[in-house]
Amino acid sequence: MACVDNILLVTDSYKVTHHMQYPKGTTKIYSYFESRGGKYPETVFFGLQYILKRWLVGSVVTKEMIQEAKEFYNLHFGEDVFNEEGWTYILKKHGGRIPIKIRAVPEGTVVPVKNVLFTVENTDPEVPWITNYFETLLVQVWYPMTVATNSRAQKEVIANNMTETSDTLEKLPFMLHDFGFRGVTSVESAAIGGASHLLNFVGSDTIAGMVMGRKYYGCDMAGFSIPAAEHSTITSWGKSHEKEAFANMLDSFPNGLVAVVSDSYDIFNACENIWGKELKDKIVKRGENGGSLVVRPDSGDPPDVVIKVLEILGKAFGTTDNSKGYKVLPDYIRIIQGDGINYEMLGTVLQRMKDHKWSADNIVFGSGGALLQKLNRDTQKCAFKCSYAEVDGTARNVFKQPVTDPGKKSKKGILSLVKQNGKLETFQEGTGVDKDIMVPVFENGKLLKDYNLKEIRERAELPIVKKQQQNGF
């Protein structure tokens, strides 16, 4: 059971008082959400549909909720500032459905920063305060959006390297595996973040993310994994029986891929002597049936360890040169680097491999905290601001322009996102509405668009991959 189920309590305290603060005669409040900049120059829009389905679709306000909220806020503020009248009106007039309209870019759309991503407005002039009451909830789209953006940026780094060092991008969807479940703040965070990563890749151990893809985005199975060892399943055999622990992995999972963490004691000895000599025949024989061993280092400086492991395995099992002139291990043995991987380190490892003439085909990556947790709302500087209001029947373009921070200047008026000359651009003050790529996704309690993960993935795909797909690769 969720800690909070009452939609009236899913907001910041100060918003409970805002119905008393708008100018008298206000009938319309219109606000928007954007990424004002940040680490990456563009964002992948994703996750609003989950928030809408989870919280806002259907009749979500009841008499009991109103009473609970009234009692809670009276205790919280020490005075009666709760808008009981307004919420009771919503219950009676709209049957507990929230009278707002949301327009948004289609999920999976890649949008340059400093552009509108969705807008929110009240549909009933009696409750203009309702628009920004849900800012707190709706802004939480920053998290799935930022995870998807971070994941896609890493995909781009990998794809660019593979274009230079590999014969094909066939392995690209499996090149970054999600190990982030244990490193996030909650199961819900794991679900949201894990699903966001799956826009770009299909490798994941974060089961909650795949469950979210199934429940909220119409994807029966969004991610895949393989049998893999952890340190406890190796070290419980004892240091003197590491070979037997490794052999057990090969015997217990005789077909397909199997990953074995190999740094419990000495990763280099494990690769040179146990894998490269004592169990070599088992590994080669496994390859005859199309199987493969994935060796996992899990400590040390990633670029140095990866190169040294590759060199040891290359000496033991041999290599071939691909059409680009880069070394490739036999198909039956690969490595996965899952320790210390983030956007920057991933690029460093791949560059080091390239410098030593190793193809990216030899490796896959795993990422945990850096993929799902080492992010915040300021990573992409996400913000929700009012840009338009109607007061006493008169339209007002609304904005802020802090003299102390020009970067926080907000947009004015009714907004639209228009594609012209191949580039997305925000039009302000009611211009470009007829060419707006944002579409209605929610109105008065009804979900108007129900995107599935397949179409979202297609929108988020890298141009280099789309080009190869068009060429039949």
Percent of residues in helices comes to 25-40%
Looking at the overall shape, the CATH architecture of the largest domain is Alpha-Beta Barrel
Kindly report the CATH topology of the largest domain.
nicotinate phosphoribosyltransferase
Structural class: alpha+beta
| Poorly predicted tracts of residues | none
Question: Helical element count?
Answer: 17
CATH superfamily of the largest domain: nicotinate phosphoribosyltransferase
Number of domains: 2
Largest sheet: 7 strands, antiparallel
Radius of gyration, in Å, reads 26 Å
User: What is the typical, i.e. mean, pLDDT?
Assistant: 97
User: Can you count the beta strands?
Assistant: 18
Biggest sheet: strands side by side, in what order? Answer: 14-13-1-5-3-17-18
Oligomeric assembly: single chain
Which CATH class of the largest domain is shown?
Answer: Alpha Beta
